[in-house]
Amino acid sequence: MISTVYGYPICKVSVNDKTKMMDEVYLNVKKIGNVSMWDSECLTTSTVSDENKFSSEYVKNEIIYHANEMMKELGLNLDLSLKMCDTKDCTFCDDIWMNIYNKGHYQVTHTHYSEQPGATLPLFSFSYFAKYNSEKDAKFIFVNPVPLSNCKELHKLDCFKPEITMDVKEGDILIFPNFMPHRVEEQLDKGPRITISGNLYEQLKD
User: Is 0.85 surpassed by the pTM of this model?
Assistant: First the structure.
């Protein structure tokens, strides 16, 4: 289902088999490492060595399928891929990682956009909620990308709200433009809260 947040398209969709997805996630849990970087605090595979990066063709294919279905629904002639390079069969540059949040973990506001010269920029980003209790676990929150108004009356309108908390459940994927600021509030329950996140790039056609 596609909706809009601050005027941009957001896709929220449930995976076909969340039990199979969770089985694949658990196979990767042993690869996890501790990290405290870019004002975040969680367990992640995003900073581990190549041989320990998140790896599951089933999960990757599920993400890519739903991303490309979103493109079709938007009427866009785009094929999306996790690959940061232009080599179609490359298996080393898939931009996907796993985050585990235990009590006290969080991520402050950030985007998946880079201003570094020559950086390969994704078109969309995603987060898959593999293990998530919507009543107890930290919320995923979009932050308004435009200057805020001090007028509280305007905050009654979604487009002026400083933040919008997404209503998601375990097994949902969120797909959103890579430049949209977002954060994860502090995990107050012991968890774990487990997500698979990453970026989606235009796959050049043959």
Answer: yes
